[in-house]
């Protein structure tokens, strides 16, 4: 559209909430791409927002609609509530109406658009959102004089809960737009009748792609999309919708897959991540979280939270655990008359589907003043009335922070308001850096699993079941998926040796061949097929029940279960532990259950055996439930600490406080952080603080417990620290010939051993070589519960263990028993795909081995110095490491007492003169 032309609108000027003659319309060219009926519906529905957007569309819509209209693969990245999903659907609805009008018989009875969502509830929400535009546009078309009504554009939802009768109806009257999940898409690709309905697909929308890319569900989906592409009649336009994520190019390549030459398919990115205004601030209930009594901190916290809720219409409160969400709601109702069951609620994954749906419905309608949640409301439903999000504690990444806070102010033009409240000093520091980096436009990078053999096993089996095909074609499809772009012949042959049961003794363990391979060369070949050339390697399914086994066992979400905990001495049942908690436990670790302390000894299937003990816990109860700190953010915290030390050296606490006031922090947070580092530096020197070029370790002799503790201040996040601690502990145990206990947190880890044993920690670290890291870590995993659990998960995903077979469903506990019987046998097999995938997943996806190799490399190159300090008591930065049971309610008093004791020792060492100076200088700005 020429800048001087007046845009012709399909409605009268006086019907609009703005004057077209005087209003600058920036995106008229985008508007003109739409059919008249679609234009009219859009104006009726969204015209009121034109003055705010300087046009008809939000920034992601302005960018995406023309690209999708042109059939360009597009990744749309924008905050929640900015209209990115509608931008995808609008172009496609517009195309379908156009196509319906142009085709003599209208649209075919088949699928044109697939919408893939990670959540069933999200698919339901989009299903409802589609009805509004489709019904609205159809009404406009029907009302127009002299114009025939267009055919109906059908849409439907299909996932695991869809009834068999509804599935049958979809075959007879097929939706043109089908909403589904990754797992159901994989089933549809192997459904003989319905897969024919997918050959007409021209568009695929992958919603919330950031939540899929980093896990095996995304890996599974990426291969499904390549299988769909291979069978479709024409090219498919892929559209990805994502909240804040980085790097966008990697996520886009994950979305679009590869050409035959291994290069990514063409794509465009619509980057509207910062299209909305954010009002974010960190708050703290006290400027001294050590000396202020716990009950005072709690009382101030709930008072702050209450005031925030009362000042807003609807407030969403995120906590880091499900129990935390319930506790916050309970205490709000106990402490204030303003909250009851009618105006407040709790939402998390452990609640029933009915309870969650009730909360979601009331939240959408604006009937709830406050809802508390853990992670279950990060994605999905629109919440138009939420105008404040409060995050309690650290969400562990900038991406998660923006995703959660983005739930507020669900319209472009509205400011997104978020408050983060920190209740301990480690999280206070973490959140301060996180909020500043969010303001600066920083986002943590996503890590995408590569060459996962268990997912490859499912898809190779699925392709062999769907039809006999050349092996070269099967490999091409697999390698066009981004996670398998570097999938080598060695990995493929290892997988095929498993799938064809080449290994001796495998079938005796009831693990049977799933596919056959043949060179199609009669008379020697077993499987000759005339439609293929002689000598063409082919692949096909084995077994009469292959299709049933595949359909009832595919997917990547692992089953989990609670383990019964029993004492070794009397076989007494003392409670249950979620099995993911066992990932953290080594023999000798102490944990709290039902208020008592237990020492972990061993596990057999679904039973855990322990001894009662009076020793202090080494693993906190929240460990398995909280998300780990992102590695990128951990590196930013180290950089922050380096900058803070420079300012401290230049002007002491006043200079530090002045600098911190440039951050989005309240005054209590500023003073608490400044005080923390002032005490740290006075007590142990600046060298005791880790930075990007220094790894600080403090050695503390605990004569009461008769232990030596090595506090390693590696603020790289729990995943890296889990791997790094295992590596250090493995080497320390070899040198000290003693059991080394490990406790891991996001800001570091602790190695503990008997006081009569000591190791040269600096020498051990200096002797590490990056090329040995992977082998050493692999050796350290042998015999661990972590290895047993992940082997079970991978063996089940690879269909080595069948969850469902001939009507019987094997529970997760039963799967674990089966896997323990298979593990020893499988470990003895050469290059066995399921074992190799188990180690790959643990090392690469769970323990971040690549980042650990980089850290060891930096130490070897002299780029990362190791600083060791011998102390009588932990430094302030190590208080959290020294009291890792901080979140156990039953230990709250013990933990407070321990912190107070550490704190008093630090103050004694600093001396009264320094403290007097500190107090005098606290109000000097």
TrEMBL record:
Segments passing through the bilayer: none
GO biological process: DNA repair
GO molecular function, one term: helicase activity
Alphabetical keyword list: ATP-binding, DNA damage, DNA repair, DNA-binding, Helicase, Hydrolase, Isomerase, Nucleotide-binding
Listed SUPFAM superfamilies: P-loop containing nucleoside triphosphate hydrolases (SSF52540)
Residues in Helicase ATP-binding domain copies: 65-263
UniProt cross-references to Pfam families, sorted A to Z: DEAD, DEAD_assoc, Helicase_C, WHD_Lhr
Signal sequence extent: none
Helicase C-terminal domain: residues covered: 296-456
InterPro entries: ATP-dep_Helicase, DEAD/DEAH_box_helicase_dom, Helicase_ATP-bd, Helicase_C-like, Lhr-like, Lhr-like_DEAD/DEAH_assoc, Lhr_WH_dom, P-loop_NTPase
Domain of life: Archaea
Family statement: Belongs to the Lhr helicase family. Lhr-Core subfamily.
NCBIfam families: PRK13767.1
PANTHER family: ATP-DEPENDENT HELICASE LHR-RELATED-RELATED, LARGE HELICASE-RELATED PROTEIN
Identification of the protein by name: ATP-dependent helicase
Organism: Natrinema versiforme
Organism classification: Archaea, Methanobacteriati, Methanobacteriota, Stenosarchaea group, Halobacteria
